[in-house]
Amino acid sequence: MSKYSSSLRLPATVVGSLVLALAPAFAQTAPDNTKANKGDKNDSAATADKQKMNATDRKLTQQIRKAVMADKSLSTYAHNVKIVSQNGTVTLRGPVRSEEEKHTIAAKAAEVAGGAEKVTDEMSVAPK
């Protein structure tokens, strides 16, 4: 055994231990909306495939999405909320990280849509 191979074992062991010890702190839960998406099977649920393709509804959805994406204080969950416009009425669905995010997104949608009465909030707060 050379003097180099034995001196490299300790740092590798230490580094390996540190990586294993710190991994949970840096690990992120993979996004998984499987449970949230089960509600999409309901025929009355507002889903992306029910998005109207007329120019007015598409523009409404686009403007709300831009407003949500421009707000960098929102979580990735909030940036991925489903926005479905049907005849000028907007439905917001999906998980967000807090009640504050729900309120922020609903307010942005109401501002673009022309009032809170035109927005249906079906968002939920996901556990951290």
Provide a descriptive summary of the structure in words.
The chain is of the alpha+beta class and 128 residues long. It has a domain at 47-128: Histidine-containing Protein, Chain: A, CATH 3.30.1340.30. The chain is 49% helix and 16% strand. The chain has five helices and three strands, in the order ααααββαβ. It has a three-stranded mixed β-sheet with strand order 1-2-3. α5 (99-113) links the parallel β2 and β3 (119-125). The longest helix has 24 residues, at 3-26. The radius of gyration is 22 Å and the shape is elongated. The mean pLDDT is 79.
What is the compact description of this entry?
The chain is of the alpha+beta class and 128 residues long. It has 5 helices and 3 strands.
CATH topology of the domain at 47-128: Histidine-containing Protein, Chain: A
Q: From the coordinates shown, what is the CATH architecture of the domain at 47-128?
A: 2-Layer Sandwich
Structural class: alpha+beta
Cα-based radius of gyration, to the nearest Å: 22 Å
Largest sheet data: 3 strands, mixed
CATH class of the domain at 47-128: Alpha Beta
In whole angstroms, how far apart are the ends? 50 Å
* Outline: elongated
Low-confidence stretches: none
Q: Order of strands across the biggest sheet? A: 1-2-3
> What count of helical segments does DSSP give?
5
Q: What's the helical proportion of residues? A: 40-55%
- The average pLDDT score comes to 79
The count of strands amounts to 3
Order of helices and strands: HHHHEEHE
> What amount of the residues lies in strands?
15-25%
